[in-house]
Specification:
The protein is α/β, with parallel strands linked by helices. It has 2 domains: about 180 residues, Orthogonal Bundle (DNA polymerase, domain 1), CATH 1.10.150; about 60 residues, Beta-grasp domain (Ubiquitin-like (UB roll)). It contains 15 helices and 12 strands. The protein has a 6-stranded mixed beta sheet with strand order 2-4-1-5-6-7, sandwiched between helices. Strands 3-9-8 form a 3-stranded mixed beta sheet, sandwiched between helices. A 3-stranded antiparallel beta sheet has the order 11-10-12. Helix 1 packs across helix 9 and helix 5 runs antiparallel to helix 6. It is flat and about 70 Å long. About 30% of the residues are buried.
Amino acid sequence: MKVGIGGFSSSGKSTVFHWLTHVRPDPAASLRGQVGMARIPDERLEWLSSLFRPKKTTPATIEFLDTPGLLADERRDNPRRLAILRESGGLLVVLNGYSDGNPAAELRRFREELLFADLEIVVNRIHRLEDQLRKPRPAKQREADEQERALLRRVEQALEAGQPASQLGLKEDEEKAIRSFQLLTLKPELVLVNISERQIGAPLSPELLALAPNALAAPAKLELELEDLAPEERQAFMNDLGLTGSSRDAVLRAIFRSMGQIVFFTVGEDECRAWPLPRGADAVEGAGQIHTDLAKRFVRAEVVSFADFRRVGSMKEAKQHGVYRLEGKTYVVQDGDIMHILAST
């Protein structure tokens, strides 16, 4: 999954990008979108790897896209800057928490920019549809255009009222109909307040939590600096600051969950691997993550939950204890499932 990192130019979002991916920001590259990968830490995968001792252990990953910061004063260029985020599947909104600003007000301004950018896309499309409807059209095409216009009118009204498209309660077929527009206000969002060492341990403001109940805070710059220190010196600084460890792993896991992702595992002597999958996906979609041929030739899936597997200790014991299951195409994969896909030859 690709997660776009957005925020105003003063938020320190490129520092957050560096902290999460360990890829140094390139100012030239970030103007068009700079990409970096991060592995998702998972204690369950580590445990499975220690048991099977495979040749290879592969965690799930997130691809992060760093984008140009929005301009607070000169807003005309902001839609172009936000356009880079449209190719992402979700948004990590970085707010400035290390100065005397107001993160809640900053989040409101950022969301307004998303609304304006989406509104421009929607209105332009409505105008094109209306131009088409003035011309002679086949009845079937005219009906499709009218249905699309009606749907976009609903989206337009919501955006004009300050309501993101995600709150419209669109049906699956409606979301599919406007998917090509890559509306920013339809994407899942997580808010991260980039704080200084002075704010460590301080609670986020009720005003911000009212806007973003799952918002997180992390001292990205400080943790980057600590990584460059020798272990003994790093520990001394952490003790002075009251830190027990880095928050990076917890933030990565939170981002992954907030983007609507789960993992299932495949295990064996060759490889233990965590496969990312959208929450609610079925076993065939899971098989397709491994290989498209497995999805096409899917017969059934052998499944045991990680919790059950860890409790009994082996596949043999899982079968004896009745926690090993055979599931069909419609089975909804659960986070932490250990699966083996059976396919026709």
